[in-house]
User: What shape does this take?
Amino acid sequence: MQRRLLLTLLVFILALSGTIPLTDSNFARADNGEVSATGSTVNIRTGPGLSYEVIGSMKQGDKAQQVSRSGDWIEIRHGNTEGWVASWLVSTEQAQDTSAQTAVSSVDSLNIRAQADLSSAVLSKMNAGEQAQVIASHGDWTEVQFRNVRGFVSTQYISLTEQQAASSEDSSSEEQAETAQALEKLSSFRIAVDALNVRAEPSLNAEIQASVKEGQVFNVKGMEGNWVQLELAEGKTGWVYAFYGELSDQPVQQASATDEKVTVLTDGTNLRAQANTSSEVVTRVDAGIQLSVAGKEGQWYLVALEDGRQAYIADWVVRTGASSEPAQAEEPQPERKAGTLNGLTIVLDPGHGGNDGGTVGVRKTNEKDLTLKTAEILSHHLRSAGAEVVMTRQSDVYVDLRHRVSESHQVAADAFISIHYDATEDSTVSGFTSYYQHPYQQKLAEHLNGGLAGKLTLDDRGARKGNYLVLRDNRQAAVLVELGFLSNFNEERIVSSDQFREQAALGLYNGIISYFDSELSE
Assistant: This one.
């Protein structure tokens, strides 16, 4: 009895000193469910931000206990390590109930990615108005099921609607009908990795039938889970994992060499061995050369060469039809009203990409990531105002500078805006700048800089002349904007935030509206 009293007294003293909590408040924080790593490697940091020290890591699929949340950061307990992880690199097991929600794409070609990361593989695309079932919401990313493909889409490009409740029998039959309809729409699959094994059955243990290469496109015969059945040569079929390619509703097009011709628009245009910009260059051709089309794979033509070989050429550097054909008279465009961008084509050029990372900040921020995120936000504003927006890159890929200019000429852009973040050896330099090269570009630069000045609190360095290739070789109204210095410790912290990108995109949008409204009054 005396021993029991002593133990009780000891527990009470420890509780008062804070060693043992009297309430379960700490455990209530830890009772927020689990998180699962979706990135290949997820760093665990000492605090909620990229500037905090890395104290551990999680591999893809690892789970951890969620403790609390601060903005876009989640406090977790992983084994003996307790720290913070970025919410966009994990999925929450106890996310809000979104099973009754449908995601509706507000843009064309919305990427569905394998992971909640801009550099992750694209599994499929959604066009404006198409719907997907919402699995879970993860802040900037939403996990969806679309045409039997499960992946992540950027939350800013979708709208959510509530599904109508239905009986289990009705919903089951409806789900089967939707699945059958979705499979009917899936027409082709493009290989996105260097080499991929094709198996006899939808299983990693099945026999390997063949090997396919990056850029090849095959007709889809069916799907089972995350496996895709492809139509191979001579009527054979095989299975590949959907995460290693991109599904499309566009069939593989075949054509004879006499059905169609394309005319090259730019001197020194590359013809490649595969249908992608990283493939080997077979040869180069100059503007005015006509090539016979032997087929089409996505945005690439398969063309016949004089020596009997075949190669691929991008559809954005050619014009279809013979050059001798008279140009068709264009229908008159409705008069554009102030405050809108109807009838205008704007090219957004997110600087750098792929093996060209651009500037790396003091806090290890990569310029190429910031430029793409800023351009995506701006494109949403411009499309909402009625503009046709062309992005020189939509993922972490390298795009040649001359190709960026060529795209501006190809679409006869009304404005070309190259988005960058600056750096210099002097870490005290700060502010944003709008550069132009030719007199016909100066007015756009001044309006863009004015729009930024109205939204950003950084130093205004004004509109200046800058000798950049994308400006120098551009026949269109073109501007290169530097949205702050990553070489400045404090400024890097500011420009790498979501709030700054929103304000910068809004400032650029206001500048664009102001520029084209001024054109109306002249």
